[in-house]
From TrEMBL:
NCBIfam families from the UniProt entry: sigpep_I_bact
SUPFAM superfamilies with a match to the protein in the record: LexA/Signal peptidase (SSF51306)
Listed name of the protein: Signal peptidase I
Source species of the chain: Aneurinibacillus danicus
Gene3D superfamilies, per the entry: Umud Fragment, subunit A (2.10.109.10)
Protein EC: 3.4.21.89
Amino acid sequence: MIKWIKEWVPVILLAIVLSMTIRTYIGEAVVVPSGSMLPTIHINDRLAVDKMTGPNDLQRGDIVVFYPPLPDKKDERFIKRLIGIGGDTIEIKDGALYRNGKKVDEPYIKEPMKYDFGPVTVPKGKFFFLGDNRNESYDSHLWPDPFVDASAIEGKARFRFYPFTDMQPM
């Protein structure tokens, strides 16, 4: 019994430490809990999230995992599309998104927006997110503080690995 403990305990501890390190700093799998990103991402899809992509590496249009600026949801992670970065002016009118005064082509959204919003200017070091299912998504356009701080960014969704029939890069 003691021989078994001496052989296996270090191996098990190393596996635990490696697993925690990878999950914390490199990447992890997330399950999509809602339909806010339909039709791009479906409920219960599994995504691989790259945690090495920092806030400064994100681009408009990326699908990002983050903690929202909502006190009652501070421990929940959201998955939305990055719409605006620091300095961008965002406006939604007549069913369309405008960034810095120019209409944005968004072939990925489920349907045109049925609401108006803004204009708002995204502060430096902050981000503005919307779900692709715009009329059903609880996102920046509905929050009291619509901007997500860079420190709340968890990572960029890189790959859908489940369901297997829909495996693809994001």
